[in-house]
Amino acid sequence: MLKYERILLKLSGEVMAGAATFGIDADRVRKLATEVADVARAGVQLGIVVGGGNIFRGVAAAARSMDRVTADQMGMLATVINSLALQDALEHMCVATRVMSAIHMNQVAEPYIRRRAIRHLEKGRIVIFAGGTSNPYFSTDTAATLRALEIKAQVIAKATRVEGVYDKDPLKFPDAVLYSEVSYLEVLSKGLGVMDASAVAMCRDNRLPILVFNLNTSGNIMRMAKGESIGTVIQ
């Protein structure tokens, strides 16, 4: 029994790199696509936003001396590369997928048009939103929130390397406490850092719940879609 009909899945770019420092790990992308495909075949309408950190990290040192706008534009282009890689893996599994880019590049991806995106979802196609918001100074967390609100997703599912939201970084502090549920205000006031403050504030203002879960646990995307008790709910 599925809990959600329409989900915006937010993936970090690092997930595409697997165990590597940066780049795209084909095996990791294939495994991720398999889980995503299973959820789509179960009847969930899926929008996906992928970050670009796995590619941008390779040039991060050079980017420190760059103009911020130029660096952000490079990051947005990195999300397009990741989106195309994920689309290819999904279509190898015979799952209809569309990449829609906020930056116009018609030979590579469809331009992002809200009504067209919703129509794709209604027809059972996975829609991968690339190119961020097309504007500098906005993270892919903010882009994911914006797209989730535009397509009227019921939840933003934020996939991470840990089980959910903790009171402090669990990778540094073994005594970190996992929240099963936490309010938007607590995330902002305590600086819990699960998403950008602007993205959390947008979700709060529009009452859009955020579900933070561990992507490294096999089957968690399906568990999330079914509403099983995993991760942390921010609401």
Helix and strand sequence: EHHEHHHEEHEHEEHHEHE
Distance between the termini: 22 Å
Helices and strands: which structural class? alpha/beta
| Count of helix runs | 10
The chain-level mean pLDDT equals: 92
Biggest sheet descriptor:
9 strands, mixed
CATH topology: the name is Carbamate kinase
**Shape by Cα distribution:** globular
Description:
The protein is an alpha/beta fold and 235 residues long. It has a single domain (6-234), classed as Carbamate kinase. It is 40% helix and 17% strand. It contains ten helices and nine strands. The chain has helices at 14-17, 26-41, 53-56, 60-63, 68-91, 114-122, 140-150, 184-189, 197-205, 220-226, and strands spanning 6-11, 45-50, 97-101, 110-111, 126-130, 155-160, 181-182, 210-214, 232-234. Strands 4-3-5-2-1-6-8-9-7 form a nine-stranded mixed β-sheet, with helices on both faces. The longest helix has 24 residues, at 68-91. The two termini are 22 Å apart. The model has no long low-confidence stretch (mean pLDDT 92).
Summarize the structure.
It is built from 10 helices and 9 strands. By secondary structure, it is an alpha/beta fold.
What attributes does this structure have?
nine-stranded mixed β-sheet; Carbamate kinase; 235 residues; alpha/beta
